[in-house]
């Protein structure tokens, strides 16, 4: 659909603090239920939130943006076989909101950093295949983020971990609530 230009984007002004937190809460729940299930091999994760106290309003397609964050969070878990801390940050600069997700996993070799957002690219084909990856998640994430005039990039050190960043222009005010007009 992206290729054919038929992907429908439904832009809405949303509170990024809430949307991001919603995604992270779901991962917290998955990790908790894994920990209780004797049949799964539990990895030792914890998710840390470092959010600005200010509200951040951005214009995105909430469903599509949720999928982007899901993929980055899934990757953070999938490519951190030893577990560790996943740090989720949300900050405001003068003009843009920047969110980031850092893991303490396998990291990405320097030579591969430029390819990571290309379709079907996987760092270690055998390793990723064992994890069930197709190498499409980040390519789609990039196209989606760019539809909102956002940027996505990565910073990583092999065997130390990776940080994925997304920046978006924020809008100044909470949107007027059409339903609440008095
Ligand atoms: N947090 C991370 N740590 C280390 N390597 C990563 C991380 N995120 C992505 N990668 C590398 O980048 C590759 C591309 O990621 P991408 O999400 O596009 O595909 P995938 O996870 O393999 O498959 P899927 O299509 O299911 O998302 C991965 O195969 C992996 O090698
Ligand atoms: Mg992925």
UniProtKB/TrEMBL annotation:
Keywords: Kinase, Phosphoprotein, Transferase, Two-component regulatory system. Its main location: membrane. It is found in: Membrane. Gene3D superfamilies: Histidine kinase-like ATPase, C-terminal domain. Its EC number is 2.7.13.3. Transmembrane segments: none annotated. It is an enzyme of class 2 (transferase). It comes from the Bacteria. One of its GO terms (biological process) is cellular response to phosphate starvation. It catalyses: ATP + protein L-histidine = ADP + protein N-phospho-L-histidine. Residues 1-172 form the Histidine kinase domain. The keyword Transferase applies. Pfam families: HATPase_c. GO terms for cellular component: plasma membrane. One of its GO terms (molecular function) is phosphoprotein phosphatase activity. This is histidine kinase. The lineage of its organism: Bacteria, Bacillati, Bacillota, Bacilli, Lactobacillales.
